[in-house]
């Protein structure tokens, strides 16, 4: 595990009194993030859930917003834009987009752990436009070209 990276975090008025996102175990990759609002999601419904804080991520990093597998597996609650991207220059409230793919209304209470945040390094690309690309054994094969499942 590398040394932790400092990330500035500002609580917004509706975030006061809530725990900050935190790693549930020593080896956790993601910090569980809490909802700052109570909201119910009907089947098929989407919502941008308030977290009650904003961040200033250091240059060269992003935060990814990922689903919690337990909510996804047991209730069909997931992040439709997974992994959500929090840019280092974004200063608005960090929101967690959720969708209910289950068949029952799902109630979220303020303080519920709704998703997880993963701090990740970012490498920006610089295009090098060329007339021809190098040959590879895969070539233009893709989208299941190597098989591995009867349906492919
Ligand atoms: O799950 C998410 C995804 C994004 N954002 C915020 C932070 C991010 O930096 C900003 C823009 O996100 P993104 O680039 O994914 O959105 P876009 O649809 O491309 O909008 P924009 O034109 O604002 O970049 O919105 C969130 O709070 N939660």
Automatic annotation (TrEMBL):
Keywords: Hydrolase, Magnesium, Metal-binding, Nucleotide metabolism. Its cofactor is Mg(2+). Pathway: Pyrimidine metabolism; dUMP biosynthesis; dUMP from dCTP (dUTP route): step 2/2. Gene3D superfamilies: 2.70.40.10. One of its GO terms (biological process) is dUTP catabolic process. Residues 132-152 are annotated as: Disordered. Residues 139-152 have a biased composition (Gly residues). The keyword Protease does not apply. It is an enzyme of class 3 (hydrolase). It holds the Pfam family dUTPase. GO terms for molecular function: dUTP diphosphatase activity; magnesium ion binding. It comes from the Bacteria. Residues 19-147 form the dUTPase-like domain. Its EC number is 3.6.1.23. It catalyses: dUTP + H2O = dUMP + diphosphate + H(+). Substrate binds at residues 68-70, 81, 85-87. PANTHER family: DEOXYURIDINE 5'-TRIPHOSPHATE NUCLEOTIDOHYDROLASE. This enzyme is involved in nucleotide metabolism: it produces dUMP, the immediate precursor of thymidine nucleotides and it decreases the intracellular concentration of dUTP so that uracil cannot be incorporated into DNA. NCBIfam families: dut (TIGR00576), PRK00601.1 (NF001862). Belongs to the dUTPase family. This is Deoxyuridine 5'-triphosphate nucleotidohydrolase. It comes from Qipengyuania aquimaris. The lineage of its organism: Bacteria, Pseudomonadati, Pseudomonadota, Alphaproteobacteria, Sphingomonadales. The gene is dut.
């Amino acid at each position: 595990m590398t040394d932790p990276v400092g990330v500035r975090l500002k609580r917004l008025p509706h975030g006061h009194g809530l725990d900050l996102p935190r790693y549930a175990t020593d080896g956790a990759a993601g910090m569980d993030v809490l909802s700052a609002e109570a909201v119910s999601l009907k089947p098929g419904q989407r919502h941008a859930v308030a977290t009650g804080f904003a961040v200033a991520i250091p240059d060269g990093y992003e935060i990814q917003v990922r689903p919690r597998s337990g909510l996804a597996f047991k209730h069909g609650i997931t992040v439709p834009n997974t992994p959500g991207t929090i840019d280092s220059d974004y200063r608005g409230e960090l929101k967690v987009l959720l969708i209910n793919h289950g068949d029952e209304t799902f109630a979220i209470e303020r303080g519920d752990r709704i998703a997880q945040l993963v701090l990740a390094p970012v490498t920006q690309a610089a295009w090098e436009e060329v007339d021809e690309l190098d040959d590879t054994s895969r070539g233009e094969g893709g989208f299941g070209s190597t098989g591995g499942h009867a349906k492919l």
